[in-house]
C-alpha cells in the first residue's frame, strides 16, 4: 500500500518537478502568484488537480492533491496516468 501524501507536500513536489513556481504555473496555465497562494494555503483548487496530475505525468496524483474528491482507486486517475 502506498503512503498517503499530504496536499502541501504534493504541491511542493510538483513545483520541484518543474524547477520553479513560474515554470509550474506556466504548465498549469496560471500565474506564479497563484502557485505561491497554493503553497501558503496548503491546497490546490479542485479544478486544477487533474491538470496537475497530467502535467506531472502522474508523479503528483490528483488523489494526493485532492483526496476529498479523487479516491486512491479512482478510475479517472488510472486512465489519465495510462494515457500520459
What is the helix tally? Answer: 6
Mean pLDDT figure: 88
Number of strands: 0
Which residues form runs of ≥5 with pLDDT under 50?
none
Large-scale geometry? globular
Descriptive account of the structure:
The chain is mostly helical and 84 residues long. It is 60% helix and 0% strand. The protein contains 6 helices and no strands.
Keywords:
single chain; 434 Repressor (Amino-terminal Domain); 84 residues; mainly alpha
Report a brief summary of the structure.
The chain has 84 residues and is mostly helical. The protein has six helices and no strands.
Indicate the topology.
Elements: H1 7-18, H2 21-28, H3 32-41, H4 49-55, H5 62-65, H6 75-83
Helix pairs in contact: 1-2, 2-3
